[in-house]
Amino acid sequence: MISDTPGLMDQVRDRFAHIDVCPFEGPRAFFENAGGALRLKSVVETSAAYASYPDNQGRPNVASQALMAAIDKGKADMRLFLNAPKGVVFVGESGSEVLFRLVRNAATGSEKGGVMIRSTLEHPAMGSAMAHWAEQTGRELIEVVHDNATGLVTAEAYKAVLRPDIRVASIIHTSPVTGKSTDVKAITAAIREVAPNAIVLVDGIQHACHGPVDVTDYDVDGYALSPYKMFSRHGYGVGWVSDRLTALAHEQIAGNGPLSWELGTRDTGAYATFSDVVAYFDWLGSQFSESDDRRTRLEAAGSAIHDEEAKLTGLILNGTGNLRGLSEMPGVELIAAEGDTPREGVISITVEGWDTKALVEFLGSKGVRTHIRKADNYSGNVLVPLGKPDCLRVSYCHYNTEAEVAKLLGAMEEALAQVG
Ligand SMILES: Cc1ncc(COP(=O)(O)O)c(C=O)c1O
């Protein structure tokens, strides 16, 4: 585990900008990682460097060739992270834009007729794209209802409504509200059994910072990432598409070849900062694996992150030292409390007697950064069926420490004391 290895947590934390001090507000423990994770210092440096180069791509001069090499390296690193030796990787405007592009091209490129299928656990970026393109292509949209108690949607729930004429199916990998991860491989296998040629698209945006992804193993056709939620920065999204999806007629610049998915001049800094993220996972993995194989090291990083975050989940829920955990505090209710599916960096709660917005502000005044999720178009899919107007989200990553958890729990005790 990272925190059990002498000196390693310090080395990890030293790689991130503003790890314990907000440049605007001062010292704080950062528990808003699902809204945007901390940025690697290497990403900040790389961004500035590439922003400073005036050269365009595709020219014979040395600077231009260096940019092309950085793009090629970024693509190779994306493939490695996703375990995608086949298919195509590309960069878009944001995670949402990539999801829309995947859904749009799958819906318009697939054989006419049939239906589309999604789940109610999805973030509206995927959900809105599925609803819009089902309507535009005259297809019924089947909605698989998630389970309120576990905060999950299962392969069994999909199976109950599957039919052979499914053209496009969507799956969320991890919910940013419940923190629970779906079994993408099992859901995809269930879909393929009934509709072998369905295009299966996955929103991996909340999952990705918790470890490498394996699109080959999942047997899916599209996967989207938001780099700002995985230690990079805003300004781009990353997409992967299978050969099956690429073979459908899809939007592209005429003449750029059948494999082209990129639209317009690329931001080399986007590709280069993704390489920084993969280099970080590689470095972390090399602390736990002596393998010469980079993918093996990325997987080792994923399991170290998984173990560290499982420890953090336990501390937040069950307490540390003489501090009670959230699950032991009176008046604190956990969202998606049931089931044994591990949480991926998210614990959402409601607190009796506290207005959630005021509680976020109170915790902020104690140096603990959290966030409110409201029953609006972004989180209403989870909160409305629970009859809750909002909840407080505590979201964490492997670089959070036991001392930060103690700060959170101590501040929560002070909050509870105020309502008596
Ligand atoms: C699961 C999930 N999907 C999609 C999005 C949208 O990503 P982006 O902000 O990159 O458009 C988010 C953002 O919170 C998310 O958590």
Write the layout of secondary structure elements.
Blueprint: H1 8-14, E1 21-22, E2 26-27, E3 29-30, H2 41-52, H3 62-82, E4 88-92, H4 95-109, E5 115-119, H5 124-136, E6 140-144, H6 155-159, E7 166-172, H7 184-194, E8 199-203, H8 215-218, E9 222-225, E10 237-241, H9 243-247, H10 268-286, H11 294-318, E11 332-334, E12 346-351, H12 356-365, E13 368-369, E14 371-374, H13 380-386, E15 390-395, H14 402-419
Parallel strand pairs: 3-13, 5-6, 5-7, 7-8, 8-9
Antiparallel strand pairs: 1-2, 4-10, 9-10, 11-12, 12-15, 14-15
Helix pairs in contact: 2-10, 3-10, 4-5, 10-11
This protein binds pyridoxal-5'-phosphate (PLP).
3D structure, described in words:
The protein is an alpha/beta fold and 420 residues long. The protein has 2 domains: 2-38 and 294-419, Alpha-Beta Complex (Aspartate Aminotransferase, domain 1), CATH 3.90.1150; 45-279, Type I PLP-dependent aspartate aminotransferase-like (Major domain) (Aspartate Aminotransferase, domain 2), CATH 3.40.640.10. Helices cover 41% and strands 15% of the residues. The protein has a 7-stranded mixed beta sheet with strand order 4-10-9-8-7-5-6, with helices on both faces. It has a 4-stranded antiparallel beta sheet with strand order 11-12-15-14, covered by helices on one side. Strand 5, helix 5 (124-136) and strand 6 form a beta-alpha-beta unit. Helix 3 crosses helix 10 (268-286) and helix 10 crosses helix 11. The longest helix is centred in the C-terminal third of the chain and has 25 residues, at 294-318. The relative contact order is 0.16. Bound molecules: pyridoxal-5'-phosphate. Pyridoxal-5'-phosphate binds at residues 94-96, 123, 125, 176, 203, 205-206, 226, 237.
